[in-house]
Amino acid sequence: MSKLDCADWLAIWDHSQTLPPALQTCALLAPLLADGLAGAERLPVGRRDAHLLDLYDALLGPQLTAMACCGHCAERLELNLNTADLRLDDPAPAAPELQLEWQDYHLRFRLPDSRDLAVLAQWLNNEPATDIEQARLLLVRRCVLEAAQGARPVSPEALPQGLLQALSEAMTQADPQALIELDMCCPACEERWNEAFDIGSYLLESLDHWARRTLDQVHLLATAYGWSEAQILALSPQRRARYLERVQS
Ligand SMILES: [Zn+2]
């Protein structure tokens, strides 16, 4: 991870902007994984998010701040967190496929990954009237590899609600890092609720701020000294900060 320098991260940030939102975090992980972008896209969402937490730690340190808004009184909340607070103990690689028995049904399935989320996002974009059941069915169609009642094959559309609920629970249990919820309590009205926290969008936003700040610094130093972008990015952060102090004083 430390082998990548400032110029590398700017190039990765550039490339991520060209991808659909659900695949942007995969572009950040691609240089760090042996099987690159394809491998990142195939990671179950929770495993991907565990890698993203490690990446956030390595790039920006362990501190992060979650923002939320109270649904009862609209108070804005700021929650200071550490990446360790968000990491669950399940580093084992996910099995490529899992099985579920429910009553006399038998399912073979895989865990949802970023490609599934990208297809789902595109579909929701094209069909804004989609309800949660239809969205769930789309994921079931993609992730269920085989379904049978006794010896008789069953299509995903014909699976009973109870089985779909059991499948959803089995997926969460097999990949718990995919759903991180924060315990929130409003200081103004004492309303309590769970707020989902998505490390992917938080990391993308943080990287975006860092990239824009870095480009501002390149612009100031290039204007003042006539140095190239490559020369400025090769300066250590400390030395770059010293020159910026001189330019801005
Ligand atoms: Zn409140």
UniProtKB/TrEMBL annotation:
Q: Which InterPro entries match?
A: Baseplate_phage_T4-like
Q: Which organism is it from?
A: Pseudomonas silesiensis
Q: What is this protein called?
A: Phage baseplate protein
